[in-house]
Specification:
binds tryptophan, Rossmann fold, mainly alpha, globular, three-stranded parallel β-sheet, 2 domains, two-stranded parallel ribbon, 13 helices
């Protein structure tokens, strides 16, 4: 679909991560590698660090500056090209946030209450009250996507309802405010990432904030310690059996991802070596694979001025794009005085 502005020469891809902790191996294999690939294939990459969205399920966003810096380190260390990508923070782009108001007018209260991902998050929230931000953040997220008229949004399964909101907002805006020429907003497409199922060291879902994850920025020793403590089972013979032995299977998958091989062959190699041989192999595989990434991360850590420049350049560019879109939106709505 064409848009009123100049057609994009390179497809825009938008994605993002809440600044709530350090990124881990699950993010790396599930999403970061994919972003680097899309960028290498010529996509124009926009990465939102949605600091306002942290407040959906907690009252206060702690250590924001620190977590934003950690995200920047992870992005650049894994190979996102900061010269070409637009990495920005929500709160630095007022025009993006203002899009929330017209967009909210396009979605009914019933639709907000029906969103299955929001329902699930409310069920698991540590807050006793559901805030208005929790209920409306999918519309805010539509603004993240539509302000830059992203064509593609790489997401996991849980984000699909939110992408549907963005598509609905685009469609309804175009229909309600028809304009000479082509519609203002293209409908963004989801690019569903096949998340490799990596469990946390406690056997639960690997999560930034549960203390069960191996962070990209962890040291080799920390990685060894975390993996030594990982939950497994008592069967000495190591087999790849995701149904019956989910924790062992997850470790095998992790080694296989790092070494570019099949988890069955990793299991055969270990044979009767038991959990300890498995953990030794996984530790070596992870540390080996992450070695260059961690080396780049350490170099970047020593140059914080560069990190600040990357973010400030991203914010400047995001503001230009958001202001252009907001001005098209207010004009289409007749707000020209
Ligand atoms: N909600 C997403 C998450 O928790 C983060 C996010 C915010 C996002 N805005 C986005 C993802 C826009 C894709 C597109 O992972």
């Amino acid at each position: 679909m064409t848009t009123r502005t100049l057609p994009q020469t390179r497809p825009r891809v938008l994605t993002g991560d809440r600044p709530t902790g350090r990124l881990h191996l699950g993010h790396y294999f599930g999403s970061l590698q994919n972003r680097v690939r899309l960028q290498a294939e010529g996509a124009e990459l926009f990465v939102v660090i949605p600091d306002y969205q942290v407040l959906t399920d907690r009252d206060v966003a702690d250590r924001l500056a620190e977590y934003v810096e950690e995200l920047l380190l992870d992005y650049l260390a894994v190979g996102i090209d900061a010269e070409r990508a637009v990495i920005f923070t929500h709160s630095s782009v007022p025009a993006l946030n203002q899009l929330l108001l017209p967009f909210l007018s396009l979605i009914s209260a019933a639709e907000l209450h029906r969103n299955p991902t929001v329902k699930d998050e409310i069920a698991h929230s540590r807050q006793s009250q559901v805030s208005g931000l929790m209920l409306t953040y999918p519309v805010h997220q539509a603004a993240d996507i539509l302000f830059c008229k992203a064509a593609l949004v790489p997401v996991g399964q849980d984000q699909l309802p939110h992408l549907e909101v963005a598509r609905t907002v685009a469609r309804r805006f175009n229909a309600r405010y028809p304009h000479a020429g082509s519609p203002l907003f293209p409908e963004p497409q989801a690019l569903l990432s096949e998340l490799p199922l990596l469990l946390g060291t406690d056997g639960g879902k690997m999560s930034k904030s549960r203390g069960n994850a191996i962070a990209l920025g962890a040291s080799a020793d920390e990685t060894a310690r975390l993996l030594r403590g990982a939950k497994t089972d008592t069967d000495r013979r190591i087999t790849y059996d995701p149904q019956r032995r989910p924790e062992v299977a997850s470790l095998l998958r992790l080694a296989a991802l790092c070494q570019g091989r099949d988890p069955h062959s990793v299991a055969e190699q270990i044979g009767d070596g038991g959990a300890s041989a498995l953990k030794t192999l996984v530790t070596e595989a992870v540390n080996e694979h992450l070695r260059p990434i961690r080396a780049r991360r350490a170099d970047l850590e020593a140059d914080r001025a560069h990190l600040r420049k990357v973010l400030s350049r991203g914010n400047t560019r995001a503001n230009e794009v958001a202001e252009a879109t907001l001005s098209e939106v207010t004009e289409a709505m007749g707000m020209r005085y």
